[in-house]
Design brief:
480 residues; alpha/beta; 3-stranded mixed β-sheet; 13 strands
Length: 480
């Protein structure tokens, strides 16, 4: 068992202003994919392509949040949550990714924000959570430089519509997944397998963040906060052998440095450029790009699930494909064919991901050093388990409670160690469409019956709600 799960007589207490939130994304929960002017995104196209998702499942209805948002907000309020992070469907606002907004699409988000504020819940808006309008993909997608400028126009539209009521903004969610799972391994939309294109996509996403940040700041009150959410990897070498250390550096560059290098420091790591020089010459980085990308941030979001353990290539191992990011004949790690991923020891979730709260503490402290003085938020953290109702209709998930306790205790330790962590967003509020896994994996604190769409708070939701209301971590056995 995890040491942090062991009950303690000393309460784990969080700062009074700490935000207790939950997170979702538009395509995973909204449904209503053809209503009020919305057009297909790359995930509509990908999920309707045979063989791309488990069981051929898709988000056409998802959990119907578009029509049930008032009930979902009331549920958050009942649990005692103080913040909610959600994403905007770009193609609901700008169906072609260009031109004026469809007000019916924006109106949904206006209503959602108003409902959250009426219940005392702070909204946090993510502009991009992987659902690029299909027309922009048809024009080249994220490897195409123009997509960054289209994103900036979209950011301005949403900022002008919601910036008077929403103070917390996130430009991009996990650009690593968008670039490398979408364009290198192909296990995410749009399903392309071109390593050079994935590196161009990463740069365009960085440029989109910079341009989008500037567009938001030009269209909103100065009091608002602009951030982005990175799924930065905690990369550990298999041994201290120089070859294993070099392998860890290579994966760290591809997972982390490719984004935080230009965004936080205004430069790509030279080791990254050297490692990928046989794939691309990086000529897509134009003069002035790094200055556009390197905009001052008001906060940084960190998403964490599990650490990575890597070594130099083992001829008997599966290589970079065995990294926990889905099954593919193509690696999401361009230029890292000489790296092997290893399964880290310990208990695992239904995703096969090792449970290791120490990785979250390490990640927070790394970015406390990487970006001193920058407030941090844990914008995603959670676990999938095979949750089922009991005969009385209740859903007990003690494994998730233990997971949350361990990781929240790690956050509190980081705060005690000097990190400025201001909030935590559990992933996810609701069971939902889990991308290529369809509806097989349940991350929600709230159980959703996919036939009736009835919502049932799991014991973890009740436990987390108690933590939110008290600012302390309840005993893991306190919810029966």
């Amino acid at each position: 068992m995890l040491e942090s799960v062991t009950p303690s007589t000393t309460p784990v207490t969080f700062p009074p202003a700490f935000l207790w939130g939950a997170a979702t994304s538009a395509y995973q929960i909204e449904g209503a994919v053809r209503e009020d002017g919305r057009t297909p995104s790359i995930w509509d196209t990908f999920s309707h392509t045979p063989g791309k998702t488990a069981g051929g499942e898709h988000g056409d209805i998802a959990v119907d949040h578009y029509h049930r948002y008032r009930d979902d907000v009331a549920l958050m309020a009942d649990l005692g949550l103080t913040a909610y992070r959600f994403s905007i469907s770009w193609s609901r606002v700008q169906p072609t990714g260009r031109g004026p907004a469809v007000q019916r699409g924006l109106d949904f988000y206006r209503r959602l924000v108003d409902e959250l504020l009426a219940h005392g819940i702070k909204p946090a808006v993510t502009l991009y959570h992987w659902d690029l309008p299909q027309e922009l993909e048809d024009a080249g997608g994220w490897p195409e430089r123009d997509t960054a400028y289209r994103f900036a126009e979209y950011a301005q539209i949403v900022g002008e519509a919601l910036g008077d009521r929403v103070e917390q903004w996130i430009t991009l969610n996990e650009p690593w997944c968008a670039a490398f799972l979408g364009y290198a391994s192909g296990v995410h939309a749009p399903g392309r397998t071109d390593p050079a294109a994935s590196l161009r996509a990463a740069h365009t996403l960085n440029l989109a963040h910079g341009l989008g940040t500037s567009a938001l700041r030009a269209s909103m009150p100065a009091r608002n906060s602009v951030a982005l959410s990175l799924n930065s990897s905690v990369v550990r070498p298999f041994s201290q052998d120089p070859a294993d250390l070099a392998a860890a550096q290579k994966i760290d560059d591809l997972a982390n440095g490719v984004f935080h290098g230009p965004i936080l420091h205004g430069a790509y790591p030279q080791t990254l450029i050297t490692a990928t020089e046989l794939i691309t010459d990086w000529s897509f980085v134009e003069d002035g790009d790094l200055a556009l990308i390197n905009q001052p941030l008001d906060a940084l979001g960190l998403n964490y699930y599990t650490p990575a353990l890597v070594s130099a290539a083992d001829p008997d191992a599966a290589g970079p494909r065995a990294d926990g990011h889905g099954s593919s004949d193509h690696s999401p790690w361009p230029g890292a064919d000489d790296v092997t991923f290893h399964q880290t020891p310990g208990e695992r979730t239904e995703m096969g991901w090792t449970i290791d709260p120490t990785g979250l503490h390490d990640l927070i402290m790394r970015y406390t050093r990487e970006a001193p003085g920058l407030p941090l938020y844990i914008t995603e953290n959670g676990a999938a388990y095979d949750d089922k109702p009991d005969p009385d209709g209740r859903v007990h998930d003690p494994e998730r409670i233990a997971y949350l306790h361990g990781h929240l205790a790690a956050v509190r330790r980081a705060i005690a160690d000097g990190a400025d962590v201001r909030g935590y967003y559990l992933w996810s509020l609701l069971d939902n469409f889990e991308w290529a896994y369809g509806y097989e994996k349940r991350f929600g604190a709230v159980y959703v019956d996919y036939t009736t769409l009835e919502r049932t708070p799991k014991s973890s939701a009740l436990w987390y709600g108690r933590a939110a209301r008290t600012g302390t971590l309840p005993d893991v056995h306190s919810i029966q």
